[in-house]
Write a structure and sequence with these properties.
Length: 230
């Protein structure tokens, strides 16, 4: 009789073979949510499962997915890690219909060890954004487009052309400076070429006048060829 009482106490008492996890999880429609359930050493060898709570008067499991080699059925997967004394449940592609109460449990002889988890699913933001983008694209056939694609394209082009424009400006300034210097030198040479004969004539006239002042009167005739040479 005593062994039966001890066995019943081990199976029923909550302190034996504890199983803990989050009481509530949440996710967005179309997204993925996961949770980890940890258990005691006594539950290491038993199979773990995930199911949805159903029934009005008597609660029962529906759509149970057990851990195993694959541990996946549809959008739900259960992976057990006995060394870490925990198993992970992953729910993919959430829908609003997935909202409800679930059980995270361990299958064993007599009574299963379970705890309840509440799943909340919110409307997917990504889908709404996609629908808004599609409707805005359709409305462009009736409303003039105000997209910022042109500024996005023109800004990089301006940045690309800026160095080229600066280089062309520098080359133009250098060419103008060289042309101005050449014209200035040419003008100076032309002026020098025009002033050289005048200076020679003035110099010769000064020499003739100086010669006449220094030479005695009557020493030579002004009309003589020698004087004309001077």
């Amino acid at each position: 009789m005593r062994p039966l009482v001890l066995l019943w106490g081990c199976l029923v008492l909550p302190g034996y073979g504890s199983l803990v996890g989050p009481k509530e999880i949440s996710g967005f429609e179309g997204g993925t949510v996961s949770l980890q359930c940890t258990y005691g050493e006594e539950l290491k060898k038993y199979r773990k499962y995930w199911c949805r709570e159903s029934g009005f008067l008597i609660s029962r499991c529906s759509g149970t997915v057990y851990s195993g080699e694959y541990g996946q059925e549809g959008r739900v997967s259960v992976h057990d890690s006995p060394r870490q004394l925990r198993f992970e449940v992953i729910l993919r592609n959430l829908t609003l219909k997935d909202m409800g109460q679930y059980w995270c449990g361990v299958k064993r002889v007599g009574f299963d060890k379970t705890f309840s988890v509440s799943l909340l699913v919110f409307p997917g933001i990504s889908r709404q954004a996609t629908q808004l983008d599609s409707t805005s694209t359709e409305d462009t056939s009736f409303v003039p487009s105000r997209s910022s694609s042109k500024p996005r394209v023109s800004i990089p082009m301006t940045r690309m052309l800026a160095p080229v424009l600066v280089l062309l400006a520098l080359l133009l300034a250098t060419g103008l400076a060289a042309l101005g210097s050449y014209l200035l030198q040419w003008r100076k040479k032309a002026q020098l070429a025009m002033e050289t004969p005048r200076k020679e004539k003035v110099h010769l006239s000064h020499l003739n006048q100086r010669t006449l002042e220094l030479a005695p009167q009557g020493s030579f005739d002004i009309s003589s060829p020698a004087f004309l040479i001077w």
